[in-house]
Amino acid sequence: MTVTHPAGFTAAGVAAGLKSTGAKDVALVVNHGPRFDSATVFTANRCKANPVLWSREVVKDGTVKAVFLNSGGANCYTGPEGFQTTHAVAERVAEHLGIGSIDVVVCSTGLIGLANSREDLLDGVDAVHAAQSTDGGAEAAEAIMTTDSVAKQVVVEGAGWTIGGMAKGAGMLAPALATMLVVITTDAVVSASDLDAALRAATRVSFDRLDSDGCMSTNDTVTVMASGASGITPPLADFTEALTQACSDLAMQLLKDAEGADHEIAITTLNAASEDEAVEVSRSVARSNLFKAAVFGQDPNWGRVLASIGTTQAAFDPADLDVAMNGVWVCRSSVPAEDPSKVDLSAREVSVTIDLKAGDARATVWTNDLTHAYVHENSAYSS
Amino acid sequence: MTVTHPAGFTAAGVAAGLKSTGAKDVALVVNHGPRFDSATVFTANRCKANPVLWSREVVKDGTVKAVFLNSGGANCYTGPEGFQTTHAVAERVAEHLGIGSIDVVVCSTGLIGLANSREDLLDGVDAVHAAQSTDGGAEAAEAIMTTDSVAKQVVVEGAGWTIGGMAKGAGMLAPALATMLVVITTDAVVSASDLDAALRAATRVSFDRLDSDGCMSTNDTVTVMASGASGITPPLADFTEALTQACSDLAMQLLKDAEGADHEIAITTLNAASEDEAVEVSRSVARSNLFKAAVFGQDPNWGRVLASIGTTQAAFDPADLDVAMNGVWVCRSSVPAEDPSKVDLSAREVSVTIDLKAGDARATVWTNDLTHAYVHENSAYSS
């Protein structure tokens, strides 16, 4: 189910031989209409993979009829040959569906610099097209996994309409998305421009506020397609709220499955002069290797929090900062307060709360701890 | 020797009980003149430790007659009481030397949020003053070590004048300095304003281009004192060159002793539109945990280099980037070139060269790999 939960969609996931393990590695999600509205956001990385270079042309007119995804190779830094492979894949999908290739988004994930066999990919298109069905969502979600340990899926129910989604990503979760592929479907009637506004609002407070390891990928794509098959046009605010719920749910699934992490850390900055400054402060802490290693060691090292805050340009008085960890205010007015030994960091979920006393804006950024397993996975994952 | 190599200086390092191990933990460097010119740069962190808050007032008039340093406690986030401790230490040093406390720089390093016993520190002042001698430089260098495994010292010989220096720091080496205390002495005749210009020029291309783990400390201080005891006034360019050599030598010693590191990585960006952009690009790679973990795993993962470059705003064509590792051009025009298996990453020294093809400026930033030992040390180092 999931991406095939809303009416009007079929999907499938099959093995095309791109993964040496023989696991599923290609997926297809098809919108059968009656409407084909869509919106997409891509990685902000300037060095974009070939599927992103192709797909950003596809999405310009707000119409997307199918999304093809493969794991087992990112098709990034593979040059004009790699771009032609993406184009050939889109053409083959379009041919099967009787549509134009310019309505086919292509997403790839896996190793960078690796050119997959074009023939393998085209055979995969044939196979996944043949396999698609109205309950193929789970297999599609499985086929896009790389170092993910579990498939990520979500369903949100509206008033007579629904949203379904799937995601992959287990590292490089960083601002403006990162090694993250997300496909969201809905049977609500939503225009492309409304979808775009809703998607930007939803990603701004979900995927954009994940910062697992500060690294930004080259392939990230979040696409939403609306079939209109429910015949119902929800108020935009209702739809945006549901879409935000779906994106936040998927984002938390990504966070919890981050490579090698022992803890999920929510860093909330309160009473900032602006939301942007609250994000800047929270993100600076999320990027501190020293702080993240301390959380791994279950050490409530609030000094490393203050040292990170001090690197930002946000409005605050350096002598009047409060910091809590798991609700214990270990620092008040920039000096030690409650006993840090009261902070129990044995559970996976950790909260850090920072009071800047400079305004009334707030924001939360989510990150993971820095662990031996993170170093191990990312030193062993061959280039 | 080292800080006591130039004429006009005495120094000492003794144990004052601040370190639980009983190792040396307080140091004193005294300038006996005839001149007392000085220049200092501090951490850019807005959350500054008490010794920095004190010392930045001391250095304003360009006159410094003594530097007192302690390890075993950073006196950071310790509030007004901590500031008074720093002040009391400066007063005690001044009393012993018959000078004003406003000519005494104080530096502290160690745990944040920890208030050392003021009595212990004052006793330390008494002891270190009594111990000072014209060959106490090595003991002073030893007394400022924290997680450093070796003392860092340097001597540079000029034409009838010399420069000596000592440094500590083994983590949080980041832009604009980081957990780094450096004292440099010279017997050349150099005015305070010339010293300031020379020091800024020297640190800009040495300490400021170390980025061990992206974290910036709260206590960093680099002070240079000129006694004029040689009676020789070198050309400013000669002095600046020698000072740059001293700072670069100490910076490389810091890099090689970085906590838990297996590799020293020099990231050089060539043909940038400006030196600032070359630094920005090199630093973005130095900050990539994924790239640094790959080097630890001896994996020449140039895709992670390109992905980092893509996060910057520097001028370049994303489709026309060249990257070499240890001289092997593994990427040309953003596609695979020479065989990455030719890159041998078994030695500690690694070079990454990036050709932006956008101008004629260049810069090198130095970093370390991300290792199990880094995570271990920084998760175990208690708050």
From TrEMBL, chains A, B:
Record EC number: 2.3.1.35, 2.3.1.1
Record field: transmembrane: none
InterPro entries given in the database record: Arg_biosynth_ArgJ, ArgJ-like_dom_sf, ArgJ_beta_C
Residues the UniProt record annotates as site (Cleavage): A178, T179
Binding residues for substrate: T146, K168, T179, E259, N378, S383
Reactions the enzyme catalyzes: L-glutamate + acetyl-CoA = N-acetyl-L-glutamate + CoA + H(+); N(2)-acetyl-L-ornithine + L-glutamate = N-acetyl-L-glutamate + L-ornithine
Gene Ontology CC, one term: cytoplasm
Keywords: Acyltransferase, Amino-acid biosynthesis, Arginine biosynthesis, Autocatalytic cleavage, Cytoplasm, Multifunctional enzyme, Transferase
The protein, known as: Arginine biosynthesis bifunctional protein ArgJ
Species in which this protein is naturally found: Nocardioides piscis
Gene that this sequence comes from: argJ
